[in-house]
Write a structure and sequence with these properties.
single chain; 192 residues; 6-stranded mixed β-sheet; 14 strands; 9% helix
Length: 192
């Protein structure tokens, strides 16, 4: 009996520890975090940033789907993502260090914002903050949106409709094999 209880307690603790991704995503505007109201973020038509805090030993980055339609965004919280295994192959090419200060907007494609300290290569702004030995905070400043298909940009000040963001963290690339979802977060950004 004691063995059974011990095993159940261990299983509960282990599943809780493994199911909670050490990830945090925030929207920052004018130097302050923007709190959502009913799941939506009210932003000024001005540059903003996405702040991503994560364990660099557990995760190598975050997949981002940005669109002006809610096709991916409306995926139910517990529902499987369509084409999850194909997401790593639907990546939009982006500049190192986010030199253009933009986010790619494409319904069928994803961005992959990653940080690789050893190769000094990443898709975030250049300044990466170390939180502790394993954790960093990386920021991606957004001054414009980029439409890869049209090769066109639009300043944030010109946005007139909501931007839907879907963030997805999976098992690290070198362990990928089968893509496993570890964390997701959805954000609807309204501009006024």
């Amino acid at each position: 009996m004691k063995t059974t209880i011990s095993l159940l307690l261990f299983a509960l603790v282990a599943s809780t520890a493994f199911s909670q991704a050490k990830v945090s995503l925030k929207i920052i505007q004018n130097g302050a975090a923007v709190n959502p109201v009913n799941g939506e973020y009210e932003l000024k038509k001005a540059p903003f940033a996405v702040e991503f805090t994560f364990d660099v030993n557990a995760y190598d980055g975050v997949f981002v789907n940005a669109d002006f339609t809610d096709a991916v965004y409306k995926t139910a919280d517990k529902a499987a993502l369509p084409d999850l295994q194909d997401i790593p192959y639907k990546i939009v090419k982006e500049e190192n260090f986010n030199t253009n200060k933009q986010i790619a907007v494409a319904a069928d494609n994803w961005s992959f914002w990653y940080y690789n300290k050893s190769t000094n290569e990443y898709r975030f702004d250049r300044d990466i903050k170390t939180v502790d030995a394993n954790t960093v905070t990386a920021t991606r400043t957004i001054e414009q949106v980029y439409f890869p298909v049209k090769e066109k940009t639009l300043k944030v000040a010109e946005l007139t409709e909501p931007l839907y963001l879907f963030f997805l963290v999976t098992n690290p690339y070198n362990q990928r094999g089968v893509v496993r979802e570890l964390y997701r977060q959805k954000m609807k950004l309204n501009f006024k």
